[in-house]
Amino acid sequence: MKKILVPIDGSERSMKSLEFIKGLFPKDTIELTIMHVQELVFMNGMMIINEFENSKQLGQRIVDVASERMKEYSPKTYLSFGYAGEEIIKKSRDDDTDIIVMTKSTKRGLTKMIGSVATFVVKHTKCIVMIIPE
């Protein structure tokens, strides 16, 4: 069974990765983890507790919506806080992920073509990264 990690940001664009998986992988052939990384803002080196709670609730809603879309795959969900690229790499290593599936950025330019987070992931991971066009 292949382990697939799908980082999402809650946008419809990022949710297209889920539809791609449905079209390519039968549900009994993969172990799916849906991940969301919430970045937090610090002021004077301190995080405001309300900001953390709000971020946690928003992140949980995002992974819950994605999980519902993929319920036939019985996905695991994972919510993390920090820089998205670093957190995705850490999770993929911890879980011994085979494939990371991400949706490309809407920005233009060589580095921006797939997005800064996707570029970071491609440069730093040891597994396959699939970038899905919009």
From TrEMBL:
UspA domain mapped to chain residues: 1-133
Domain of life where this protein originates: Bacteria
InterPro entries noted in UniProt: Rossmann-like_a/b/a_fold, Universal_stress_UspA, UspA
PANTHER family, A to Z: STRESS RESPONSE PROTEIN NHAX, UNIVERSAL STRESS PROTEIN UP12
Family: Belongs to the universal stress protein A family.
Designated name of the protein: Universal stress protein
Organism: Clostridium weizhouense
